[in-house]
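Cont'd.
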Amino acid sequence: MKKELKIFDRPENVKKFLTAFYISLVVLLIVDLFIPKHGDFPWENIPDFFAVYGFVSCVSLIFIAKILRLLIKRDENHYE
Amino acid sequence: MNNLIPPPAILIVGALFVPLIKGKLKSAYLLLLPVLAFVMLLKMPAGKYWVVHVLDYDLIFGRVDRLSMVFGYIFTIISFIGVLFALKVEDDLQHVSALVYAGSAIGVTFAGDFFSLYIFWELMAIASTFLILARRTKASQDAAFRYILVHIFGGLCLLAGIIIYIQNKGTIEFSYIGLDGMASWFIFIGIGLNAAIPPLHPWLQDAYPEATVTGAVFMSALTTKSAVYLMARTFPGTELLIYIGALMTAIPIFYAVLENDIRRVLAYSLINQVGFMMCGIGIGTALAINGTVSHAFCHILYKALLFMSTGSVLYMTGKIRCTDLGGLYKTMPLTCLFCMIGAASISAFPLFSGFVSKSMIVSASSHEKLVAVWLILQFASAGVFHHAGIKVPFFTFFGHDSGIRTKEPPLNMLLAMGIAAFFCVAIAIFPKPLYDILPYPVHYVPYTGAHVVGQLQLLMFGALAFCLLILSGYYPPEMRAINLDTDWFYRKGGRLFNNVVDTVLNRINAISDRLIARAIPVWLGRLSRTPVTSLLTLYVKATGKKDLVIEDLKGDTRPEATTLLPMGVPVLISIVFLFSLFVLFVFLT
């Protein structure tokens, strides 16, 4: 039997992973302030616009999907 | 061009010999066919050849230009990868139909006239149906039946358009058509159905998840992308496509978030990706068309990679639902890695292939100042990462440990995934070879500071939303369910139609059976045997004179059944009748 990978079984590894993730987010926010921009739209040049847009997009995606589920969810045998 | 064999012929004719070959030779033969087709492609200069003169028309089997060539390359490359992935499948039906399917897609790509196009188009639909049927389950049989019905409908729309077009223009050659008149609308709908534009899309998410593990790889690559090619050929710059495309990128991601079947999530994200391409075709500028073509190229590779890695999970564990899977990175680390490369590519992470292709389409939309479209495309880009980029690998390979312990799939499957993964990364790091074969000269630079950081922010903060929602328990839980889509109309509608027709027609049938087949002949029979009594009974019934005494009438009537008319009298009447008809006929004409 081959040895199994178990890195995410340990909570401290998950924690490390999340910490690295959060740090990279902060780095991205800071780096963006120093990048020269020539966007076609004025709002593309606002600092950290894409961070806000990405976050808002995904949160609204989930909330709309949750509402949509109320309307379209049916039993697995709906078409039987 | 007599020394070259048409690539579609290599695959389609070559496929017919597959059942005759056994063992190791068969594997070599299967792999050789796409390689041979690719070599032929490399030797084909631009131009029109393999022209066959039939019934006053010229069938053109080889219209080779920059647009058709890119699709020719990628279709042969993916055929090789698909064949390698399916090499161990012991089912000739699948090998033959996959090769015929791939050959027909290449045939569509190089067809320069409507007749040969239509033949390859229908061949593609038929061959792909067998890749669903070959799974041999009740669900797949049903899905295949719906799939072929929908494609027959699309094919007939295309055929109707083609016939009207030929009637109007007098030629079967085609290139740019544009939305103008009935013929073009029929052709547009025919192509659009194969491209899965809403509301004609549900066949895709209905059928692909029911296909065989290896069949789905071919399907994800060929049908929609040959439609993308044809759309780019015939309807570039059609404004309607911009809005259809934008809708197509947005709507499926909501479904993908809710869907439980991993391969169905991928099917929805496939529609979403083709949406970007439709949008690019609609914008129609050189940048947009380049973006569309390069995105189709990259998309075929990473989508096939995703279908291969999730297919491997299905192949090894027999399970494909989010609710049944989880924690597989422990025993399938390589498959997990390949899946994540596919996921990063579809999400357009910098250094993965989607980044160098999709961003051309998004940039084209901002160059044209299409504010709403640009916002939707960015929203969809974040959404893709959310469901295809994170959800698919997370619920399959990470998430809660499902307790499933399995191992990596066979070597040929790993190799096929490895090749696709290699392309996904290589194209992103060295996009120049891909840019060089695009239809228009490329001046696009994907790696600028603002673009890389902007894209990373969009994706990583989308990931943050996923992370926070999962940790806080707000993320909609995965559950076994069906989410209604527009196929409801024909799945429920078909049943309703069946019930209505069943009730109405069968009732009419029953009534006519009772009346015409039984009651009337019986009565007529009785009438001829006992005319007086029968008529009297009828008279009594009709008038309600119950007190009429039959005996009173007996004196006036002849005894029953003894003094019938002589045989000759009815015959005479008939002849007179026929003769008068004849006279009438003669005088009238």
